[in-house]
Amino acid sequence: MLEKRAARIVILGGGFAGIATAAKLERLLRPGEAEIDLVSRENFTLFTPMLPEVSSGGLASRHVLTPIRAQLHRTNFHLAEVRRVDLAARMVYVEHAILGKRERLQYDHLVLALGAVTSTFGLPGVAERVLPLKTIEDAARLRNHVIAMLEIADVTRDERERERLLTFVFVGGGFTGVEAAGEMVDLFNSVARFYRNVSRERIRVVLVEGGARLLPELPEGMGTYSDRELRRRGVEMVMGDLVAGADANGLLLKSGRVIPSATIVWSAGARPAPLLGKLGLPLARGGSIATKSDLAIDGRPNLWAIGDCASIPDEHGKPYPPTAQHALREGPRLAENIVRTLRGKPTQAFRYRAMGMMASLGARRGVASLRGKVLLTGFPAFFLWRSYYLLRLPGIDRRIRVAFDWTLNLLFPRDIAELRVYTRSAREDLSSMPSAEISTSDI
């Protein structure tokens, strides 16, 4: 009698959702019951809530990265790009991220957890001119770019160009835009002293939001407080004006206003990974994959979707928000449903009520809404934000490193070393800058 082959579960994506699914599967599966394969183009998980602090130099980039191999112990990890998925043949085609070697992975269950990428909505000049803030490379690139702008502004003699170099525009009034703008103010307050010809008063931080208020998807009190606090700290607000495009001079708005700037940080939109649109699966608004309440894809046996790339209905039929808080809970439920399917048992719906939402505004200020009823602001909200996310950071070593970084920030100014370790696109940022007129007496 032939021995029954172990099922093969393939997870595409190494973010919060994919890792949470694999980790729970490792705990639930019996020996020999199934093999787990996880495919990710990076060998680490990025703790995205702390990304704005990396972009301002408040945290070392490596301290918010947790190696995937350190989190999973029974999962076969593939450092690879997903090139194609053949749903009919139940085959995934991947390419090793370093070697370029191609590989085929046969699956019995496939989990789509590929997340989302930055979207610039096809606006003219935006994709070529803005700096996204979605990945760890984006954050490091932004920090180095900001320091480079300060360096150039310090030696230019053209006052109009200096003004453009010292104007930093953030597009999008959601979590990322609000937190990144607040963190950047902290950076400038800390390092402006090192630039003799750059006064702190001349450094502008501008936040552009197309809607009527900040944090539009959250309780109104959170947006109101964030607006007031950021204005108090010198952030200029442009509300209710949509982006029309970008050019070499700066940001163009639908109202006709132009904001001259050499730095435009884009956090105004995201879309699911492009590969997902080629699979012929049911899509929800925005291009995410529509799932049933148990995270399965209707009409596609043993095919599941989770995280930022999935539209998962709650008990009222409204999609859950694509946040880390939800992804961390979706993963275990999906793992349970896969195991229940392997064992011939019915699946269960994903149901979760968010504990609350929080945002850090820099300068030891924050805003938090607990269960949509209790609103915390100022230092108590900031302390809650740091405490909660520090405990959620994977790995005790990472928590100690981040806590140490925070302690050092109380004692010393931010680092202004500009590391010129750029990708081609990052190098093009500086090469496309107009040459500043520099006097030898200024050097």
What would you note in describing this structure?
This protein has 443 residues and is an alpha/beta fold. Helices cover 32% and strands 24% of the residues. It is built from 12 helices and 24 strands. The strands form 7 sheets. A 7-stranded mixed β-sheet has the order 7-6-5-2-1-8-20, with helices on one face. A 5-stranded parallel β-sheet has the order 10-17-11-12-13.
Task: Detail the topology: elements first, then pairings.
Elements: E1 7-12, H1 16-28, E2 34-40, E3 44-46, H2 51-55, E4 65-67, H3 68-71, E5 76-86, E6 91-96, E7 102-106, E8 109-112, E9 116-118, H4 126-129, E10 131-132, H5 136-155, H6 159-165, E11 167-171, H7 175-191, E12 204-209, H8 220-232, E13 236-239, E14 243-246, E15 250-253, E16 258-260, E17 263-266, E18 270-272, E19 289-290, E20 303-305, E21 310-311, H9 324-342, E22 356-362, E23 365-370, E24 374-377, H10 378-392, H11 396-411, H12 424-431
Parallel strand pairs: 1-2, 1-8, 2-5, 8-20, 10-17, 11-12, 11-17, 12-13, 19-21
Antiparallel strand pairs: 3-4, 5-6, 6-7, 9-18, 14-15, 15-16, 22-23, 23-24
Helix pairs in contact: 1-9, 5-6
